[in-house]
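sanity check this fold:
=====
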Amino acid sequence: MTSDFAIPNLESNSTAPSLESISALSDLESNPTPVQESNAPTEENFNLTLLDDSSELPLKETTVNKNNQVKFKTEGGKLLLILPTESQLPASELNWSEIWQQIQLRLMAGDRLRIPNAIVHLMAGDRLLDTRQLQELAETLSKVQLQLKSVSTSRRQTAIAAVSAGYSVEQLERESSLSITSNTTAAPLSDALYLEMTVRSGVEIRHPGTVIILGDLNPGGIVVADGDILVWGRLRGVAHAGATGNRECLIMAVQMEPTQLRIADSVARSPEKSPMQFLPEVAYVTPEGIRITRAPDFSRIQISRMNQEPLSEE
């Protein structure tokens, strides 16, 4: 708290202070400015300013840009941990150490905003994180009874590291200032996301392109893709292809036992009785809804359709 009153330095000045100075000091001690207390938690409680160990006042010269700071925020009933983007704070081991210190300080100062066993959703943006950094985050949150549940990122490497560690992943489109598309034209799909792993129960993967899994999709696991979904293994969870409305997308699996299949706005469930033998199958949309057929038969259907289409005149 600052004051407009000037307090004389008695040690550095041997001359006795004036009566005006003594009067001002007396008034300040007898009539202190009241402090308003508030128990309502706000986002600003987390925005602590990091200062260098050797730095002192004035604060204006040592205050860190707020855009470069870690933030905790509640949105839609979710507790979000928002990291600064790489455009705000370039990726380096030194900058990650700074981010790490900020997270620890905010957790130490945010007791009033913490709920035991609360779920944390990490908003990593375009920041590249590896398995070690995600593990450090999870362990630190666990020490204060917070649980890292999901990771939202625009980096494929971060998405792969997160889903490999067992977290739900939402992969976002990476913003580009060079290409601005009109709202009337469909945005191109992102590069395919390749995952060599088993998608376990409770893990959700979202990707704005095709998802290819070299492994199984277990019951309770969810994969949502704007493009196709290819499972080189057993598909026993929920698969949603063409999530933005593309009815031409496909879902393919070596062994098709889905809890639910969705292509665009069409929905299908697996039959109650499992087949005696399994062959690679393809799910696709017809005017009657989603159909599932063997992969060789689907190839013949596609070839037949191509042969029936009239050739364009040159």
Notes: Helices lie at 19-30, 93-109, 131-143, 156-164, 295-308.
